[in-house]
Amino acid sequence: MKRIITFAIGILFIVLSAVAGGQRVLFIGDSITDGNWGNSCGTAKPSSQRTLWDMNHIYGSGYMYLCATYYQGNYPEKEYEFLNRGISGNTLEDLEKRWEEDVIDMKPDVLSVLVGTNDIHFYLQSDKKKPFDFAAWEKRYRSLLDRSLQANPNLKIVLGAPFVANTGNMRKSADFAERDSLVRRCAEITERIAKDYKAVYLPFNKMFDEILKTIPTSKDTYWIWDGIHPTPAGHKRMADLWIECVKL
User: Fold this and answer.
1) How would residue 18 be classed by pLDDT, with cut points 50, 70 and 90?
2) pTM of the predicted model as reported, rounded to 2 decimal places
3) DSSP 176-241
4) Radius of gyration for the chain, computed over Cα atoms and rounded to the nearest angstrom
5) Pairing of the two strands 110-114 and 156-160
6) Is residue 1 pLDDT above 50, yes or no?
7) Is residue 2 very low, low, confident or very high in pLDDT (cuts 50, 70, 90)?
8) Domain 22-246 belongs to what topology?
9) What is residue 156's three-state secondary structure?
């Protein structure tokens, strides 16, 4: 009888382990992360309104997809679970509004955040009566990470630097210099936060600076087609950097 009970417990453990799967890796951010995951059709649909069962479109297209395919394709025995929670047009404030549902409730083991470009974009579109509040932006960012660490003290955090480039239609923008300066300030803050939280920092901005400077192409849109969104080639380089630095 004891052998039967022991055997049954062993089988139950195996089944529960299989159900539990491996590490859960969650990406959150704006359109660069979004990539039309869950059949969003280019809209900013909330996660609850996206197709969560269609594995053909579950990750969308972009660096997040490439990271997931790398780990899931090469290490099936580890049963990594990836989640895309990027939503086009989102700012840090938008992430805050859905943090409980799209981050805390998902119980990730690894959290990858890329945000900042839209914060500056919408600020530049405003009347700009006051300077961009970097102190408030940093405080909000830290608060979100604190909430996640409170829910999971062992959470591995990955923070990506926001970036822009003077390519494509962005070349027609009269405020590119200001935009570039403000986005770089957000990147500096992100790097400081990453250091304080012992998080993995991904210098996407410096990566693209180097690529655009050292790899000449016939079209300036080869890596970032509109000054904000990477092409497939750009997303591949982002994924390579993520994989190299994060090391799941």
Assistant:
1) very low
2) 0.90
3) HHHHHHHHHHHHHHHHHHHHHTT-EEE-HHHHHHHHHHHS--SSTTTTBSSSSSB-HHHHHHHHHH
4) 20
5) parallel
6) no
7) very low
8) Rossmann fold (3.40.50)
9) strand
